[in-house]
Amino acid sequence: MTDRPYAEATARNAAPILEILKREFRDSQRVLEIGSGTGQHAVAFAAILDHLHWQTSDLDENHAGINAWVGASQLENVSAPLSIDVRTADVAVDSYDAVYSSNTAHIMGIDAVETMFSLVGNALRVDGVFCLYGPFRCNGQFNAQSNADFDTNLRGRDPAMGIRDLEALDEFAAVNSLRRRRLYAVPSNNYVAVWRKTGDPIT
Ligand SMILES: C[S@@+](CC[C@H](N)C(=O)[O-])C[C@H]1O[C@@H](n2cnc3c(N)ncnc32)[C@H](O)[C@@H]1O
After folding, report:
1. pLDDT at 184 over 70
2. What range does the domain containing 80 cover?
3. 0.70 exceeded by the pTM?
4. Using CA atoms, how far apart are residues 190 and 192, in angstroms rounded to an integer?
């Protein structure tokens, strides 16, 4: 049996994110998580938000750890991970009411971020919501020196990684009929950005 992987930051940020999801996913039932990572968020959120069915997903290399968390939780409303690489995956149209992803946009290359928004636009029904947690640059500015340093560190490790401009994410969203409706500031200089799927193209 695989030990459950544990990320301290993921444990720490779960409570403030949960407060936002209580509000944003209030009218949702079917949730897809992209890049579930350790699986900690999935079980923490599904345990409290028991009106939801939480579908985990990630690259295959993370499935054993996610399965370990899902199995140990014994929750009936969280499912074993789907193999979703946002660069290549197909998800059935209108199959989810909500999509959640945490700390993924600065890890994926920008092309993958763009295809993630395309996947989300397809997967969500009209009025469905996408909540994306992480650090973002707004109006070309970092909100903290620690995030500027983090960005330099990421790009040094891999030039494809880096903290994304919120305005660029809004552009990827708009071509997929997703309009941003909120931006929550949360601890550690991070945000939860929330887009809603509209019934009409956004011009
Ligand atoms: C920093 S970890 C965040 C994990 C978790 N969401 C959390 O907040 O603890 C980034 C995650 O993005 C996933 N990821 C990276 N590239 C991806 C891609 N192309 N498609 C789907 N997931 C990807 C990784 O496998 C990893 O689980």
Report:
1. yes
2. 8-197
3. yes
4. 7
